[in-house]
Structures are given as C-alpha cells and as structure tokens.
Amino acid sequence: MARIETLPVRIGEDLIIGGGHPIVVQTMCNTHTSDVAATVAQTLELAAAGAQLVRITVPGLQDVPCVAEIKRQLREAGCRVPLVADIHFSSQTAIAVAPIVEKVRINPGNFHPDHDQAREQFARFLAVCKQSGTAVRVGLNHGSLGRYITDRYGNTPHAMAMAAMEWLEMCIAADFYRVVVSLKASNTVVMVQAYRELAALMQQRGVVFPMHLGVTEAGGGDSGRIKSCVGIATLLQEGIGDTIRVSLTEPPVNELPVAQYLAMRGCSASPSSTGSASRLPSSLPADAGTGFGGANPAAAELSPSGPVDDGMLDAAICWGPKLLKREIDEIPDSAGLSDYLKDEIMQAARRRFYKPEYIACPGCGRTMYNLQETFEEVQRRTAHLKGLVIAVMGCIVNGPGEMADADWGYVGEGGGRVTIYRRSEPVLRHIPDTEAIDRLLELIEKDRVGQSLSES
Ligand code: SF4
C-alpha cells in the first residue's frame, strides 16, 4: 500500500519528518535532565547508535537552564542530533524551553484542567514556537485523555482521534504547520485503530500532519519488542507512519536496533531475506511482499546498530498484523514458529492471552528507582496470574494517568516508596519498596478470593 502523503516538517536544520522522507528513528533519555553530564553522555551514545532525534524530559522551569547547557555541550562535541523537550502539564515550561530545542512534545489537554484555559495556553505556546521555528509534537496517550473528551466520546480510539483533531485545528488556525502528531496506547488494537481514524480525519480535512508511531508502555524483553513490532508494522504496512519509537523498559540504546529494523523491514509483510532462515515463517501468505512499495527510501542504507533477533522480529512483523486485522485466527503450523513465539505474537495482537498482560513505561528523567529491575521482579512473581493486566510505572506524576486498562498498578514514587493502584484508585500509599510486591500479591489474592466467593 502506498504511503499516506503527509506534510514535510523540518526539525532543526538537518532533519525532515514526513513528506515522503525516510522514516525517522527516535528514542528518549532516561537520565535526570538536571544531571547534565549524564544526559550529554547518554545523548551522545544514542546519537552514535543512530538515533535521529533524542527526547529528554523537562519536569519544570528549574530544568530549562540544564537543557540549554546540554545542548551547548552536545554541539561543542560536534553532535547535531535534534533535541525534543518532553513536557507534561506545565505550559510555562513548554514556552520557556521552546526557543532552546528543535521540538517540544506536549499533550495540550493536560496544560490545564479547564479546557478553555488549556486552549489559551496552547495558543500562547504555538505563538512562541512559530517565532522560534520550533516544531511541536501533539502527543496524546490513551491513558491520559481529559474528561472533556471522554465524557463526549468515551475512552475510545475515536475519542483519541477527535481530541487530536481539535489541537491540530488550532495549529491550522494559527497558520502553524511544524507539527507531528501521535496517539499512543499500550493496547495494539486501540493504538492501530486510533491512528487509522486520525489519518482518515486528517485526509478528509485536507491537511495531513506526519505521524509518530509507538506502542506505549510496551514493557521489555521479547514481549516488548514483539508488541511494538505488531502495532507499528500494522500501520506501516497501511502506509501510516513517518517517525517511530520503540519504547522498552530497558536502557534506551536497546530500543534503536529494533526501531531501525522496523524502519527497514516493518513496511513489508514479507520476512527479511537476510533473516535467520531456519526460524522464518516458511509458508508466507499469498500477499506476502506487498507493503510499502519501497517507499522508505533510506531502507537500503539502514542497518540495526546492535544485535536483533531478526527471526523473532520478522515473525512478529509478518504474522502480527494479519492477526490484529483478523485476516487469520491462528498462526499456521507451516510457519515453523515455536509455541512460545506463537503465544507471544497472539498475545501482542490481543487474540489469545497465555500470561498476564504487562504495561510498563520505559522510564525517563522522572523515574526515581530501578524500574527495569523492579519490572522484571514483578513479572517473575506474577507470571501465574493469567488474565490480569499489571502495570509498573516509573513515576507518580504521570504513571497513574498513563496506565489505562490496568487491573493493578505498581507506581514508584521515589525515595524507596511505592503506591499500589487497583484500576484507577490508589489502595496503598507510600509503602516501602522492599515490601511492595508482597503487598501487591496479597491484594490480588484477596481480590480473587472475594470474587470466587461472590460467584459461588
Ligand atoms: S510514566 Fe514513566 S515514561 Fe512517563 S513520565 Fe513517568 S517515568 Fe517517565
């Protein structure tokens, strides 16, 4: 399928997203932005590994001078990678940092609880970006849609697309077109549907901004990689997507080889000819080979910057989209995949659940504890709880809002303290992290006993 035509958006001097340009691969630092040396070092590492855009979190106004210093040191070191400031809630911070960085990522709906005031603040922010030549990502997540939207449309993919369209209309009205848009969700079905609706709405409107794709809070390991491949490749094969991030609860440099492989191969429904032949699907569907039509011009020049399990990624890219689109109900035995890989792809496409569903953010400069280690421990100790959705989130500021659909949430507060959520309600606050997983398991057990008693 041909790639959807989008506006070209210039990011700094050297990079263009959209407009038929090659898919841009990006990632995000997980260092504290106030730790300038660590953030500079990590950005250099990520740029060297092929990140074409690096995002850093900017929690508040006090961090803005650090961003200026990080950029100064990067440029002095000869690194020209564009920087994206990641802002939550504070329009003041967004406005202050906009002239320093090449792009700012915001969710305008959380600028203010009052929708009219959020609109006013967004308009002021756009005026600053227009003046400074800074690009903007309007980035909405399934878990953090405001009441203003969910009261009207429910917590649905349609609501996500409609919410984005409102902010995009404001950009058009302000004659501001340096805009990229994203609608991430951890549920691949929701994520794919939201982007499809958004693409259709923008096409009807006659202004199609480039789209940033990602499966948010995908977790880590094989599951995180497979879930990202299933969601992102489904859209790439439909011609949707101009820039991608694979979010993993791991060091950010691990995200890049997977994203590069997806940019290279995800547009096509057929496996790589350079993949591990013995592990590849041996019988491809009749339409194998159709896809992006070679429309990612840089694909030939791309290669993963680190090791990837290409057989696993190819299998997810090939079979995941067919399952997600319900073109098939099972991966055929003739594909030659292991039961483990079949189960993982089936679950990533949300067709069959063989273990708990995990939601885990990648962590960022707001994370105040060892997220990866904790997530791995939670997975080990809850592996038997098939049917539950368990979230592990890196910060108390955004974590609770972002873990839509989770039955249980482990949210690190920093300072060795944790809050446990049951759906959207905090049920245990400020408990020591040394006992948090035990307490979570006790609560889950109590809940299950209560449920089986009420059913009997
Ligand atoms: S939820 Fe995770 S990725 Fe999002 S802001 Fe908090 S720590 Fe960062």
Q: Quick one: overall form?
A: globular
- DSSP strand count: 15
In CATH, the architecture of the largest domain is Alpha-Beta Barrel
CATH topology of the largest domain: TIM Barrel
How much is the radius of gyration in Å?
21 Å
Overall CATH class of the largest domain: Alpha Beta
- By secondary-structure content and strand pairing, the structural class works out as alpha/beta
The biggest beta sheet is recorded as: 8 strands, parallel
Task: Output the helix-strand order.
Answer: EEEHEHEHEHEHHEHEHEHHHEHEHEEEH
Low-confidence stretches: 273-300
Estimate the helix proportion, in percent.
40-55%
Secondary structure tally, helices: 14
Q: How confident overall, as mean pLDDT?
A: 91
Q: Keywords for this structure?
A:
single chain; 2 domains; binds iron/sulfur cluster; alpha/beta; five-stranded mixed β-sheet; Sulfite Reductase Hemoprotein, domain 1; 456 residues; TIM Barrel
How would you summarize the topology of this molecule?
Elements: E1 9-11, E2 15-17, E3 24-28, H1 36-48, E4 53-57, H2 64-76, E5 83-86, H3 91-97, E6 103-106, H4 115-132, E7 135-141, H5 147-153, H6 157-173, E8 179-184, H7 188-205, E9 212-213, H8 221-236, E10 243-244, H9 255-265, H10 310-324, H11 339-348, E11 357-360, H12 371-382, E12 389-393, H13 399-402, E13 408-414, E14 417-422, E15 425-432, H14 433-455
Parallel strand pairs: 3-4, 3-10, 4-5, 5-6, 6-7, 7-8, 9-10, 11-12, 12-13
Antiparallel strand pairs: 1-2, 13-14, 14-15
The protein binds iron/sulfur cluster (SF4).
